[in-house]
Amino acid sequence: MSGSFPLSRAQAEEFDLRETTGSTNADLVAAAPERSDFAVIASLAQTAGRGRLDRVWEAPAGQMLAASVLLRTRTESGAPLPVESWGWYPLIAGAALRAAVADVLPDREVTLKWPNDVLVAGRKVSGLLADLVTVDGRPDAVVVGSGIDLTIAEADLPTPTSTSLALEGAAGSAEQLGDRVFAAYLENLRALVERLARSGGDTSGIRDTVAAVCDTIGRRVRVELPDGTDRFGTATGLDAAGRLLVLADDLPDEIAVAAGDVTHLRYE
């Protein structure tokens, strides 16, 4: 498989394409101490993928790209970024992947749902998951995994609100589509990570960039919080840590949502 994914290989420091694996995120977290910044582990056949809130999912082999990238970002002085800014990694990854999908589907409406689901005409085509890498008990890097539905047929989609690039009109084999999208994603991601590094942890510019493409902002939403509470309200923006700000119907002040399921409401 050494000749596969030529566009993506050109964008990555190390590109490890595996015929099959349980989880590219788990593989890369385990290998992180020996891997360089922007190293990638990818597969078209992932059997034990894990989504947000620890949901486990599996896609038909050869029709979905699972790929994880190691981000060991350092400032110009060689120091790690402030840990409080690391929450932006999954958000900027979502913005980077949204732009890459939009390049492949120029005639479709491609949007970003907080924190990092990419939607095509309201249906999910990809999502991301970030895992922290620690060394000697200290944060050292972040692994950001992505799952991109490439050529999955309607009958095989994981949920009724999912879609694939092929269903939305993109032409090419799974490998061709995966290479095009992932290469563009890596290029976009690198540019955003470098901006974050140059800022020294000042996320104001990054916040503006993500907010500009986040379709959740300004919408009526339902937020299902980890404790089982549901909140209904309007998403108003992002705070300095990348949390979603929601003006809830039953509270006087905005709440900052760090984790939970967000549903866009149409008729509320």
TrEMBL record:
UniProtKB keywords: Biotin, Ligase
UniProt-listed CDD domains: BPL
InterPro entries attached to this UniProt entry: aa-tRNA-synth_II/BPL/LPL, Biotin_CoA_COase_ligase, BPL_C, BPL_LPL_catalytic
Source species, domain of life: Bacteria
SUPFAM superfamilies: Class II aaRS and biotin synthetases
Molecular-function GO terms, alphabetical: ligase activity
Pfam families per record: BPL_C, BPL_LplA_LipB
EC number: 6.3.4.15
Broadest EC class assigned to this enzyme: ligase
Record keyword NAD present: no
Domain BPL/LPL catalytic: 44-149
Chain ranges of the Biotin protein ligase C-terminal domain: 216-262
PANTHER family in UniProt: BIOTIN PROTEIN LIGASE (PTHR12835), BIOTIN--PROTEIN LIGASE (PTHR12835:SF5)
Official protein name in the record: biotin--[biotin carboxyl-carrier protein] ligase
